[in-house]
Amino acid sequence: MLKRIICFLLMIIPLIAFADSPEPTVNILTWWGYLDYPDMIQSAEKACHAKISFDEYYSNDEFLRRWQSQKDSYDIIIFSDTIYNIIKDKIPKFDSDKLWMNSLSYNPIVRKHYYRKKYPHNVVYFLQSLTGFVWNPAVINISEKDSIQDIFKKAGQNDVVIMDDSLEPFKLVESTLGSNLKGYDIDEFNFDNFKKLISKSNVYIANNNIQVYDSKKFAFSFNWSGDSIEILKKSKGKYRFFIHPGLSYISADLLARTSNTESAVCVSRFITSKEYSIDLQDRTYYFSPYNDVIPARDNLFQSIYKTYIRLLRSLGWLDYLNKNDFNQVNKNWQLIKISLNNHLLNNGIEQK
Amino acid sequence: MKIKSIKDLRSKLHKTTVILFLSVSFFVYMGLFIVHIQFVKRQSFFDQQEIMHVIKVYRSNLAESLSIIAGSNIFQDYLRSGVETRSNMYVQFLSQLSLLRSNSIVGMIIEKSDSQVIFSYGTKSDASIKLSLCYINQMLEPSMGECDYSWILFLDRKRLFQDLLLLNKEMKPCADCRPINFINNGRIGQFSVTSYSPLYFNLKIANNKDYFFYIYFYLMTMMLLFFFLWSWLKISILIDKYISGPIKTLAACLRSQLTVDYVEQIEEINCLIDGINGWKLKLSKIQADAHSIKLAEIAAHLAHDIRSPLMVIDMIISNFSDNASNDFLVIRQASQRISNIANEFLEKYRCPSLSTADEILNEYVPGLLQDIITEKRVQYLDRKVNLTLKISEESFPVFSAVNSSDFKRVLSNLVNNSVEAIGEVGNVNISLNRKNDLLSIEIVDDGCGIPNDLLPKILAEGCSYGKKGGYGLGLSHAIKLIERWHGKLEIKSKENIGTTVSVSLPVSAKIPIWFNEKINIRSGMKICVIGIDVVSQVEWKERFSDLIENNIIDVLFFNSKDEVVESSRRVDLSNAILFFYYDFNLEGASGLLAIKNIGFIEKSVLLVDFYNNTDFQLACLNIGIKLIPKNFLQYIPIDFN
Is A266 helix (H, G, I), strand (E, B) or coil? Predict the structure, then answer.
């Protein structure tokens, strides 16, 4: 009887404790749009008995600024693998975390890549992406044979959107100069070369879903595949998506658990689970790292996904820069953005 | 309106001036009114612009503050953060919002595009603006940016109104003013306005009253009045001076029959005056002519009636010719003059155009003068008036182009005047002098004289002085006649002392052939005088006394031609001059015939009373004998060679 009472108390005390104490909050810093699905968040909250609060950012710069100013307040961070080297020292390592075991179900090529990077156990792939061109056939025609310079020249004075991420534009400039990523000279990533690259086109630098895409002068955008598919879908078939074998790269977003709370553990596992990832893939049009997760809802995305899988082996991955180089590239990119704004003003083309 | 007088004309012109003034005033005031209306409209437009400007400034300031806040990292981080982070950032976020220093914003809400409220602060009000927060990355960009958030601002109307007034203290609320919307387009700065509660303000600019309009109005009125009065006065002055005055004076002169003898500035009026004067003169002449005709008729009757008794007188005188004396001679001359006058009147009356009464001939002036004086002496025998005639030696051969009858009449009148001016006792001295080409006849009396002020009137027609029953026609008529002969009449007079009348006439350069102007004497010459009485012989001797006493000449007197013929047989008369007296009846033959018969034509000179008889002159010329007026022996120059 006493055993039964003790057992009952042991069972009831935690319940009472849970009932009295408020639900813990898991604070997440993430790319914009990844977690902006209330039903999925609610399911995670329900599963983990925690409140999820997430802050969104629009660029790596913003991530780094917010991370550096409030890193202790975040339990989970979702960020681009290109900046992993920049923050890896600040990410706590939880070797006991079994989060890495997600990789066992990854696409083999992705898994191989994951292993090659030797991430801590609490850092896993969240979603993957592919850079490509969304182009407007009414204004421009892009083919595999076109260099990036040709593409810009074809754009003429029309509107062009380039993602606001330092490495991808850097790769474009390097491509213009005929170098490869490893043999680059970061100093060559400057406004003059960028100006040569963009020629006379009216360039917008943005990651979010700006209204340039509604313009009749829109020529093309160099975006991540998820954003590209969003644009394609909004264009209702007007635009095309093109994966350039020489200019498109694969990149991945990582999730790192930075807090060792049970809620954080739970939420990190939940939102990196295969089921959640597949659901998220269908919603965000970013690729899940898991194997055999062909999108079922959207034919366009399905088609692109198949292309992605087909090219996964051949396309290059954006390599990681060391901290100094990344800071230098990032700084140059900021300068280019400022100069670009002035350049436009000086040429009477105001960035809208 | 019919203009019947100068007064009507003046009234009409003044009415025209008033109408002109009113018309000009109407257009001026209309123009001023239109300008004023335009000015008020433009002022209203500018006021509206000023109010709009104030609102724009306020909106711009608000937009600038909102942009600074919305562009900040804190604000954007807050938007993109979850509940947890927002809770942590709350104070920091409020601090950022405090940069929005606007009293008029009393509350705000920030919400996501799915209407999820991210932030709410302050109170809600009925006036709100919903701004769209659109970003390209981290920059506000309302046109191309992604608009995931909205910022709703709640405004307090009163405070907003006060804030607007702070920007322009001349702005005042105005109930009847056109409402101005605080948000007049779909954007405030870098924000799109997605919705708003109407925020209308009835404002006006409290400008100073437009006193300039009233000043202009006053000045314009004064100017118009000035010009009106000036025009009125100027028209009056001009009418009075150049039209009304002259015409009135002219009319007054015509009414009073005075001569219009002034000169006006207006050429046309002067022309009118000249015309009136001309017509007046013509009228006077016509009247005078009518009077003259009437007088001429009377004179003609008179002359006709006079001729019969004159013929009787002439007949009687001719019966006494053998005993011719000076008295008979005077009577005969007077009778002859009366006869001539009567004949002239008749000629003038019967055939004025053929009348020789006005004929001007080369007349012997001393002879004419002597005739007059002789006549006047007889005429005034009953008066104790001494009439003298002095003829200078150089005046002996003086002829002048005059009408003898008129000349005598003029001189007769002048002498009459002098005699009548004397009263009972006095002297009238007539003298004839020559100076170069002018002869001068002076009639000097010691009568009552003429007052200086009356002298011009006497010279004028229609006046006489000191003469009972005088018509005043004589003197002026004399002047006209003398002027016709190119001469001049002057009167100098002193009251109670006497009067001097001077008649000057041009001396005729041509001396008639029949006139013997001088006697050429040579030593040993014999002067034969035929047909004079003893008294006259004494006169001759006295004239040549010096030559006789010095035995240079010898004067012989003969009573008849037979004596001359007989004497010529005894005495050599080849060196002689024979002076025949025509009046002497040489045995029944005429003097001329006797001279011709004697045979000394070239040495003979005839002394006659009727030297001015034209027929006689012609007869003398025919036989080549010259004449000397009978009573002028004492004046004839003697040339002793």
Answer: helix
> Which residue in A64, A161, A211 has the most chain B C-beta atoms within 10 A of its own C-beta, making it the best mutation to test that interface?
A211
Q: Residue A75 and residue A83: Cα distance in Å, rounded?
A: 18
Strands (E), B292-415: 361-364, 384-391, 399-402
What is the token pair recorded at A295? 């999108």
* pLDDT greater than 90 at residue B213: no
Q: What pLDDT shows up at residue A181?
A: 47
Task: State the Cα–Cα distance between residues B111 and B408, nearest whole angstrom.
Answer: 148
Nearest to A137 by CA among A227, A243, A241: A241
**A270-275 — which CB contacts under 8 Å span 24+ positions?**
A270/A43, A270/A44, A270/A47, A270/A48, A271/A35, A271/A40, A271/A44, A271/A76, A271/A126, A272/A99, A272/A102, A272/A124, A272/A125, A272/A126, A273/A102, A274/A102, A274/A105
User: What does the alpha-carbon distance between residue B104 and residue B162 come to, in Å, rounded to a whole number?
Assistant: 8
- A204–B144: do the CB atoms touch at under 8 Å? yes
Amino acid at site B54: V
Domains annotated for chain A, with CATH where assigned, are: 23-127+251-298 (3.40.190.10), 130-249+317-346 (3.40.190.10)
Q: How many CB pairs under 8 A join A and B?
A: 65
Query: E strands within chain A?
Result: 25-31, 51-57, 76-80, 123-135, 159-162, 202-205, 218-224, 240-242, 249-257, 316-317
The separation between the first and the last C-alpha atoms of chain A, rounded to the nearest angstrom, is 77
Indicate yes or no: CB of B85 within 8 angstroms of CB of A65: no
Alpha carbon separation from B205 to B95, B168, B174, B278 (Å, rounded): 37, 9, 9, 81
**A38 token code pair:** 């209330």
Summarised one tens digit per residue, pLDDT across range B153-201 is 999 988 888 888 888 888 888 888 888 887 766 788 889 888 888 788 8
Cβ partners under 8 Å of residue A107, min gap 6:
A289, A290, A291, A309, A312
Nearest to A192 by CA among A215, A178, A219, A173: A173
Q: What is the pLDDT of residues B426-482, one digit of tens each?
A: 899 999 999 889 999 999 999 888 888 877 777 765 455 555 444 444 677 888 889
Strands A123-135 and B553-558: unpaired
pTM: 0.55
> Which chain A residues are closer than 8 Å to B81 by Cβ?
53, 55-56
Pair B358, B481: CB distance under 8 Å: no
